[in-house]
Design brief:
Elements: H1 10-26, E1 34-35, H2 40-47, E2 53-56, H3 65-71, E3 82-88, H4 92-99, E4 103-110, H5 115-123, E5 128-132, H6 135-142, E6 150-158, E7 164-165, H7 173-181, E8 186-194, E9 210-213, H8 233-250, E10 254-257, H9 261-276, E11 286-288, H10 296-300, E12 306-308, H11 317-321, H12 339-349, E13 352-355, E14 359-360, E15 366-367, E16 369-370, E17 373-374, H13 380-383, H14 395-405, E18 417-421, H15 439-446, E19 462-465, E20 468-471, H16 478-487, H17 493-496, H18 500-508, E21 512-513, H19 535-541
Parallel strand pairs: 1-9, 2-3, 2-6, 3-4, 4-5, 6-8, 8-9, 10-11, 10-13, 11-12, 13-18, 18-19
Antiparallel strand pairs: 6-7, 14-15, 16-17, 19-20, 20-21
Helix pairs in contact: 1-2, 8-9, 16-18
């Protein structure tokens, strides 16, 4: 409209005003971009405004814990109604923000450690959940409609100019920083140390506004470490069925494993059971997963050719540095992780995702958001979904697609293998199989538009339990699909309601496979098959390079 003027640089002017407030408040205490730890609350009061979208870095492992604690000290009369953007709710402080009235809205991906408390706060109306995202979805929204105004991140080290070195736990940092810095947001980094020369520059100083050396190193959770001593014989049996009935059957070379003892068991019998089947060089060559210590024996046995990681794993640093042919390692010797790129790799470049869940319904829908515990989804919806945009082929992808389209007049295409691997009863004898997901009630309780489903049933190709494998690709109707699921649901109420005649028919057709149908002798399913039976065995397998965190040392 002629005569009217639009201000095109409002965000930039607002950013300048915030920085000016911070400079005025801190005065001589501010040395370039370096802020004393004891002045952090003052800095946050200067640069954060009520209603801001604030991204607090809390990944699966790396936590901006000092900044989280400082954020909790803000005066809610001065700063309130923050909209928090977080990959993971891991620390009590992440929810204290809502208890104290500093924050009111939350968009996140995973909340494992805080899942029960999150459910209580949602039920009490203290948290307004925007959405439970998958990681890649949340990162994508940082660049569209959830761009952070302020980002609070963690790094290993900074130099005196503000350049950052993230080391092996880069994780979410690039996605957070780039979205914030290039939309006139403010980036504040806590670091473990300030040095004259960095091993490498992971985030340039131009993208960072303030740096604080935290009093203690940022917290890192060894999330993916599993002690082989806790793997059961039932899990060994399930691992055998996975390898023979799925990995070998499809020739799966590019894999993403979820977190847990079930998949750790698979990793640990690759050098023994898979080797006995002549599968070295034929399965499990390329991986998208954190550097699980349970993978060490398979790497040493020559099964694994490459691993790209979402994040690192405590204690694996020296081993990774010594195996640069396998891991993505920088010139400094430390691994470069990147959660966003590894999510992309898992979605588009892997032929199979295999993971676990808390509940599965009769259509194969699964969720880890249950009544009393909103655990969120993490990366599973990306890993565990068929990538409709994929165009390159592989034998496993083509075979799954052929099975899915058998008897249908459709344009040929492949399909990703998505496997849900669960014991029929979880801890405290909670059934994994249910007639209806808790997600329906949770959606009503949290006022969500749709039930929070982790992996949709139409993406699931196989369900694996101690009872056997249900190949959902071979089902010809919804009724067959339901009975295939009931057929591996064991002695749960869902399993007991099976149509026995129909289940036997599905078994005759190979839709349901029991261990004996695959030629697996259950008497072989013992812990003797594990290439490492305890943490000390993993250390030995690594040639002494693996240094388990203290909690896993019992010698």
């Amino acid at each position: 409209m002629q005569g009217s003027k639009r201000e095109w640089d409002h965000r930039q002017k607002n950013r300048d005003a915030r920085l000016a407030r911070a400079t005025g408040k801190l005065g001589a205490a501010l040395s370039g971009k370096l802020v004393p730890a004891e002045r952090m609350v003052e800095l946050l009061h200067s640069v954060i405004e009520s209603g801001d979208r604030v991204c607090l870095e809390g990944n699966n492992q790396k936590q901006a814990d000092f900044l989280a604690a400082a954020l909790c000290q803000l005066d809610p009369a001065q700063v309130h109604d923050l909209h928090m953007l977080q990959s993971v709710l891991a620390l009590p402080e992440h929810l204290d923000l809502f208890e104290k009235g500093i924050a009111s809205k939350l968009d996140f991906s995973f909340s494992g450690p805080q899942g029960a408390q999150l459910a209580r706060l949602v039920a009490a109306g203290k948290i307004n959940i925007g959405a439970i995202h998958t990681y890649l979805e949340l990162f994508g929204r940082y660049f569209i409609d959830l761009t952070p105004r302020v980002a609070l991140i963690a790094a290993q080290a900074a130099d005196r100019h503000g350049n950052l070195y993230t080391g092996p736990n880069t994780e979410d940092t690039p996605a957070i920083v780039e979205a914030t810095a290039f939309k006139n947001g403010i980036v504040i980094a806590q670091v473990n140390e300030i040095v004259d020369v960095l091993p490498r520059v992971d985030v340039p100083a131009d993208w960072v506004d303030f740096v604080v050396q935290a009093p203690t190193p940022h917290y890192i959770e060894p999330l993916f470490t599993r002690d082989p001593a806790l793997i059961s014989e039932v899990q060994v049996l399930m691992a055998m069925m996975a390898i023979k009935g799925i990995y070998a059957e499809y020739g799966v070379e590019r894999i993403n494993h979820g977190i847990g003892f079930d998949t750790a068991a698979i990793e640990l019998i690759l050098p023994t059971y898979a080797e006995s089947l002549g599968l070295r060089g034929k399965i499990g060559r390329n991986w998208a997963l954190n550097p699980h210590p349970a993978l060490i024996p398979a790497i040493e046995a020559g099964f694994v050719e490459s691993v790209h990681s979402f994040g690192s794993e405590l204690g694996m640093e020296r081993y990774i540095e010594s195996r640069p042919d396998v891991f993505f390692v920088g010139r400094d010797g430390s691994m470069r992780s990147n959660r966003a790129m590894c999510q992309v790799a898992g979605h588009y470049a892997c032929d199979m995702f295999i993971g676990s869940t808390l509940q599965i319904d009769l259509q194969g829908n699964s969720s880890t958001a249950t009544l009393g515990r909103i655990a969120g989804f993490g990366g599973a919806p990306n890993m565990g979904s068929d990538a409709r945009g994929r165009r390159h082929s592989s034998p496993a992808w083509l075979k799954a697609g052929q099975q899915a389209q058998q008897g249908k007049k459709k344009m040929p295409r492949g399909q990703k293998l998505v496997v849900q691997m669960v014991e029929t009863f979880r801890e405290h004898m909670q059934p994994a199989f249910v007639e209806e997901l808790d997600a329906w009630q949770l959606a009503e309780q949290a006022k969500l538009d749709i039930p929070p489903v982790m992996i949709y049933g139409d993406d699931v190709t196989h369900i694996l339990t101690e009872e056997g494998i249900a190949n959902l690709l071979l089902c010809r109707s919804e009724e067959e699909r339901e009975q295939a699921i009931r057929g591996v649901a064991g002695y749960t109420a869902v399993g007991m309601a099976r149509d026995r005649k129909m289940v036997e028919n599905l078994r005759d057709r190979g839709v349901i496979l029991r261990a004996e149908d695959m030629g697996i002798d259950k008497r072989m399913a013992t812990r003797d098959l594990l290439a490492a039976k305890n943490m000390k065995d993993l250390v030995r397998a690594s040639g002494g390079l693996y240094a388990p965190p203290k909690r896993f040392r019992n010698w």
